[in-house]
Request: fold
Amino acid sequence: MCDVDGIFVDLPEDTPSVVNKSSLHQYQSSLPSESNLSSLTLLNEVFQDNKQSLCNNFDQIIKSVPFDADNSHVSSWTSSLNKFADPISLLEESLGICEKCSSDQITPIGLHKFQRGKCTCPLDITENTKSANRESKQDSKGLSCFVKTLHSDSSNDESKSSEDQRHLFKPKFGRPRHLAKTNQPTTSKCTPIYQDVDLEKEDEIKAHKSNVAKVTFKTAKEQLLASNPAAKRTLGASRKAQAKFVSPMIGAQEKQETAEPEITDERLKHIDPKMIELIESEIIDRGTPIDWDDIAGLEMAKSVIQEAVVWPLLRPDIFTGLRRPPKGILLFGPPGTGKTLIGKCVAAQCNATFFSISASSLTSKWIGDGEKMVRALFAVARCHQPAVIFIDEIDSLLTQRNDTEHEATRRIKTEFLVQFDGAATGEEDRLLIVGATNRPQELDEAARRRLVKRLYIPLPDLNAREQIITNLLKSETNELTPQHIAEVASLTDGYSGADMRSLCAEAAMGPVRAVPLAQIISIQRDKVRPVNVQDFKNALQRVRPSVSQDDLGQYVQWNKTYGQGF
Ligand SMILES: Nc1ncnc2c1ncn2[C@@H]1O[C@H](COP(=O)(O)OP(=O)(O)OP(=O)(O)O)[C@@H](O)[C@H]1O
Reply:
């Protein structure tokens, strides 16, 4: 039995253990507005876990709390607690977690924080509780609406005497857990303090908790859906084969939608806009235009191409009937001999759009979409006439059939041949397909038939190598005389054009390597010495030819059989 301000409250010996850490919040906020009885009962609730140890001192604690709504109650209360061996940890044990705010996510609240009367959780419970208290005070029923008879049933609350009501209390924030616990049978003579729980308050708490959870924590899926509702279609939903892909990346949908290019050309209406955009951005080559003089040697190949391809593209009115140009040419030969350069040069000379694509990327990069890509490529090229479609490694597309050929590859190949034939028969189309390969022997008969002009692009001869060195040295200060260049050219028999480029790049490093390490950062550009013949001789030790004689023999042989014959 405790005596607080003349109010006697039954404190059952063995009050059921109800751990209600949020009660401390309620207790604190109740002090300014609630009766002593409410506060006392709340305080009792706070300490229920520690009831045994508190039992003897409970009266003192209760008495020490000034229920006069001033701010000294917390300090008085803690000073009372000081009578215990370890009062702070005792209290913190009870307080450990802000239950109301943090039942789903643990937010420890230290005693010091609580003493300042401020819950630190995202929704300030103390503030909320205070405002709830203010509201409840305005309620005409006042405290009586919270009070229920300790031992009686809830139906006759209103008829209870004020004396009874001293023993009644219904917490503002009843918790389902309370109800469950109070209903537990006890072997002792303990009397449950709370027999009823305000269901409305329970709902309020549930809503509060879920609000806190929403404010403070979202699963990755929830975050994604909040920022990109369209992603719902890709998360857990089954996607049909024709369904449009919706990126699950945050913000990707907006990007996709804003990036949708507007199709103005009727010929592209049936083509996937994304593919059109891809072709426009990645496959159309808008690099520096190449001139015939940029290509060293290869005089015969250049003149054939000029006559067979460039002029007809420039003057389609003259080149009709028997003079009608081939729609496809094949450039074959060792790697790095200028096949791509020639393709670019043709496009530049004809003022044509240059489309450059690697056949192997059709079968690997656009898995499943290679067929559509081929269709889109030809469609876009028709919109950009005159156009040159350069297909590198064409052997990997128009390869001889074999048992291991993949179904997807076969379909791409079929589509390519269909498109090629369409371009070839379209009188108005000014499209040229240039195929390049290092393995002409792997091309099948269908490819050979369509690529009418098959030009061998050999390794550069002596003159061509001289020309390559001269061209590349134009951008470097050097001391090489024509004799030096001729000397280097004679030492590079068997080098491809690409090998020659590597050799010159290596030689150009000679003067830089000659600069003392300490000066490399500070030295002025014009203080670096010019490239000399010795740099080339040193470079020759490091850069070796990349094409073997055996390979060369095969090209020569294939050229004799299927090539143009020069
Ligand atoms: N005849 C040449 N004249 C000038 N430079 C050349 C010549 N051949 C090759 N090169 C140099 O080599 C580089 C690679 O040439 P290119 O890409 O045209 O060779 P490629 O035959 O298409 O090679 P790959 O078969 O490996 O695709 C060019 O950028 C150029 O610097």
Summary: The beta strands are 2-4, 7-9, 284-285, 328-332, 353-358, 387-392, 431-437, 453-456. The first strand starts at residue 2 and ends at 4. The domain at 462-546 is CATH 1.10.8.60 (Helicase, Ruva Protein; domain 3). The radius of gyration is 44 Å.
